[in-house]
Amino acid sequence: MNIKFIVNPSAGHGNYKHVIHDIESVFSRSHFSYDITILSCKGEATLIAKESADNYSAIIAVGGDGTINEVLNGLIGTNAILGIIPAGTGNGIAREFGLPLKVKEACKIILNGHTKWIDVGNAGGRYFMGCAGTGFDALIAKFAGELRGPFRGIWVYFFAGLIVFHRYKPKLVNITINSELSLEVKPLLIAIANTKRYGGRALITPQASPDDGLFDICIIKSMNMISLAFNLPKLFKGTHTNLPQVKIHKAENVFIQANEPIPFHIDGESLDSCCSIQFNIMPKAIRLFVPKEG
């Protein structure tokens, strides 16, 4: 097997050379051929993955959920297998699939060669593996992206959350589910989820499955900050779904529309604000290295 590693230089909280050393220490002793590319700018991973897909059996994203998302967007429609070496802040996608968070152990998952076909979400032509949506979390993603640079880690999202805390004002949106059910709501957030987790440990849709051909949609209606602070811990246990302000739906497609531009995100990465976006599920659209079950 011929493998391409695509490394985000922010991986390992900026200690990407240590991450690369661990990768090389494992694969140099294997029968796999490989090479490593270090990214130089945002968005480059998609282009590199797409250009490499015809010449490599597998493309490995080395970084966090944002890096995985970029690589995924380059591999849709190709035969290359996607691999993950989790080295980001939250590593929500890696946690979802039970991947080890230690680099050498994650490398062994690739060496073992066990794969699984996974659904992928399409958000207006952009693909995502985990969760997308709009609302409070999308605005946090936007400000976190602006705060990045010399700042890394969970503190970026903490400070972005403080900024959004005082700025977020819910907008009236219309949600059409499966081209049939139409809802009008002022949401705290709307999550269009392919997986249970987002942002690391949050269980936004605890019943979601990444290979059932369906989104799990979590709509959390607007609530005051006292209620938000009180109920936030429930999000990490998955018990928020019992709240009266929370509704869960399953669907193959979702359309969100607003009268003015609103923020959206995919896999925690901010998209340009817009007035509407269509979400469609693509069943079993990517092949992923995962641990063997049992």
Task: Summarize this structure briefly.
By secondary structure, this protein is α+β, with helices and mostly antiparallel strands. It has helices at 16-27, 44-52, 65-75, 92-96, 103-112, 136-147, 154-167, 225-235; strands at residues 2-7, 33-38, 58-63, 81-86, 115-123, 126-128, 131-135, 173-177, 181-185, 187-193, 197-198, 202-203, 215-221, 246-251, 253-266, 269-289.
Mean pLDDT: 90
User: How large is the radius of gyration?
Assistant: 19 Å
Number of helices: 8
The total number of structural domains is 2
CATH class descriptor of the largest domain: Mainly Beta
Stated plainly, the CATH topology of the largest domain is called Tumour Suppressor Smad4
User: How many β-strand runs?
Assistant: 16
Shape: globular
Q: How does this structure look, described?
A:
The chain has about 290 residues and is α+β, with helices and mostly antiparallel strands. The protein folds into 2 domains: about 1-115, Rossmann fold, CATH 3.40.50; about 125-285, Tumour Suppressor Smad4, CATH 2.60.200. It has 8 helices and 16 strands. It has helices spanning about 15-25, 45-50, 65-75, 90-95, 105-110, 135-145, 155-165, 225-235; strands spanning about 1-5, 35-40, 60-65, 80-85, 115-125, 125-130, 130-135, 175, 180-185, 185-195, 195-200, 200-205, 215-220, 245-250, 255-265, 270-290. The strands form 3 sheets. Strands 5, 6, 7, 8, 9, 10, 13, 14, 15 and 16 form a 10-stranded antiparallel beta sheet that branches. It has a 4-stranded parallel beta sheet with strand order 2-1-3-4, sandwiched between helices. The chain is globular and about 55 Å long. The protein starts with a strand and ends in a 5-residue tail after the last strand.
